[in-house]
Amino acid sequence: MNPLLADSSGLAGFAADAREFLAAVRFARPDVLWLLWLVPVLGLLDRWAARRRRAAISRIGRPAGVAGQLTDPFPRRRWLGLAYPVGWVLLVLGAAGPRWGKSDETGVAVGRDVVVVLDVSRSMQADDMADPSAKTRWEAARAAALDLVDGMARRGGHRVAVVAFAARPLVLCPLTTDTDHARAVVADLDGLVPPPEVRPPVAGASVSGTRIGAALSAAVAAHDARFPGYQDIVLISDGDDPGGDREWVKGAGEARAAGIPVHAVGVGNPDADAFLKFGEELVSTRLQEGPLRQVADETRGQYLAARRDVPRLGEFFRDRIEPLPGREVSDESLPLPRERYVWFLAPALAFFAVGWVRGR
Amino acid sequence: MRFPTFAAPEFLYLLPLALLVAWWWAWRRRPAVRFSDLSLFGGATGGRARRAVWGGAALRGLACAALVLACAGPRLPDERTRLPAEAIAVMMVMDVSDTMSGKVAWAPGEPEVTRLEAAQRAFRLFVAGGRSPDGTTFDPRPSDQVGLVALASVPQTVCPLTLNHSVLLKVADGLKPTPPGADAGTNVGDAIAEALIRLEAARGPKTRVLILLSDGQHFPNEVNTTGALKPRAAAQLAANLGYPIYTIDAGPDPPPGAPPDDVRRQGRETLRQVAEMTGGRAFTATAGADMLAAYKQIDGLARSPVAAYQYRRYFEFSGWCAAAAVVFLLAAHVLDRTAWRTVP
To answer: Do the bridges between strand B137-138 and strand B145-151 make them parallel or antiparallel, or are there none, so unpaired?
Structure first.
């Protein structure tokens, strides 16, 4: 076998390398490559102009005679005629945005971090909401959370995490910029069949089914410690903790210590009891705004009294949270192609400069 | 008003070149014809010749400036344009049933780990890259959409398909084996079906792959799951949809000379059959070299463009500058050969 054509060296190797390289080249604006047709078109124009020039000279005199009278400070060289076509090819290739290889720059997400805390305790099954499409509190809470995620997706760059809680908190989705992901997680949540992890650790234990404090602690832990000051917690609950032991104080204290405002959203009817059936027992529940207000005050957050309406959290996010300064995070190593236009535009400039100095 | 920054500001030193080019074009010595009688051309001096000289100079200067700017790469902060990625959808099914708390050797000379831990390590190798126990090096696959289904008695999607792998790995590392008890069971068939539903719902990627990390022992919980799909039936479903299933056995090797009804032997056989029926491959979690072959095979599959939730740092104006240069140069070139044509 011819050593020049041996694999991985010599001509065949070079050809393979070249093929591999060309397969890796991408153009940001491939349509611009159609402009390469300019090169032959301008060539034809050049020929036409040269003919018109000869015609003009022949009006002055015999072409050979006129040629003898020409003064040219820079005698033309044949190869200089190549400067413009080569310059044009390079310019068009450069304008099309060639890119290959991997860039050192990473993608970035600029925005705020929000942890949504959703109450899925039994009292959230009460159907004292005014909206016919979300009769129960948990449906209203879920609709509000989806609205919030959509509001965050509008501009993008924000990160959202989802925590559901009843007797115990459960991080359903860690902080992510993928709002589709968060949306799918929230949409999957069912208040009638909450995830088993939020049930009391021991079945039938006499622990309260609404532990707001533990949920807030989990939300604080779900935040990214690298970005203090860019964080918020949105708590959607009816505030109705049958435990009555002010358990939320500890969680609110943790949020305050971390400097994270908790925006509490109250859903339910504060003025009239709703009744729920637990087995044989009939239990009454109503929106308890007191604890929610105190959590918000304690942490310098806001209390949103949505009461019997679906809270409009998307609007709230856009008006109150989005305008605040954002952090910059680039955790995902999504490969970015390296821009190579300079490799084409700089030589194009050089070729055109040669053409201008020495030619027409 | 935000001012643009430059990707390569050193090119800006070339900006005076534009003036130089314009000056040269206006004042250079031109080719001429010696002719004894100027009266012939006396009436032809006028605006057009002057415009040709100054216009040609201006257009060339502007083109030069535009090209220099294009090389310097002017850009403004952007942060709102989502980055494109070329993705395939990979749905991982990870067994978290109680049998996965059994021990298995990962690397020779190291303490044994649980089967779940072995599966998690294989998962991490696959998504984030690294070195397997036999020294095979895996590259990360950052542009693939990966999701995760946890499998016990009831399958649960713990992470839908996402490009945010840092989140995915956090979720995967947080998985714990389910304790033996009322919820115990290994429902491989239904978990495959759940993953297939997620793959069907994938938007964007046309190539969809399923990876099953399990010890292959299918024991549906008869109390709370009736009518669970058998792994082979689920595999048939995947084969009909055209999604290959790659299986990674996280359990130990079956003892040599074990009878055909040995649990380990059956588990491995199930995984092999599932992979075979769907056109995938079966291998063990510690066999890095085998896994790399499948990894390469998946890499060779067709990718489709999807938008990532990462954002471009800058909006680049280099293309616009290059376009301006094209316009100026084209104008100069065409005018020089038509309205501004000179003789000789």
So the answer is: unpaired
DSSP state of A276: E
Do residues B66 and B127 both lie within one domain? Answer: no
Domain span(s) for CATH 3.40.50.410 in chain A: 109-328
- To test the contact with chain A by mutation, choose from B6, B14, B27, B33 the residue with the greatest count of A C-beta atoms within 10 A, namely B33
ipTM over 0.85: no
Domain identity same for B66 and B186: no
B43 and B97 fall within a common domain: no
Q: Of A107, A178, A356, which is closest to B312 when you measure between CB atoms?
A: A107
Strand ranges, E, within A32-89? 70-71
pLDDT digits (tens, 9 = 90+) for A8-22: 556 777 888 888 888
Question: What confidence category does residue A1 fall into, taking pLDDT thresholds of 50, 70 and 90?
Answer: very low
Same domain membership, residue B317 and residue B304: no
Q: Over 60: is that where the pLDDT of A337 sits?
A: yes
Residues B148 and B250 in one domain: yes
Is B142 in Cβ contact with A71 (below 8 Å)?
A: no
The parent domain of residue B67 ranges over: 5-79+312-337
Task: Note the CATH number of domain A109-328.
Answer: 3.40.50.410
pLDDT at A256 over 90: yes
User: How many other CB atoms are there within 10 angstroms of residue B126's CB atom?
Assistant: 24
pLDDT in tens, B82-94: 888 888 889 989 8
Residue A111's nearest CA partner among A319, A325, A313, A258 is A325
Containing A20, the helix (H) or strand (E) segment is helix A10-24
Query: Taking the model in full, what pTM does it have?
Result: 0.78
Residue B342 lies in a domain: no
Residue A34, chain B, CB below 8 Å: the answer is no
Scored b (16 or more CB within 10 A) or e, B236-262 reads ebbbeeebbbbbbbbbbebeeeeeeee
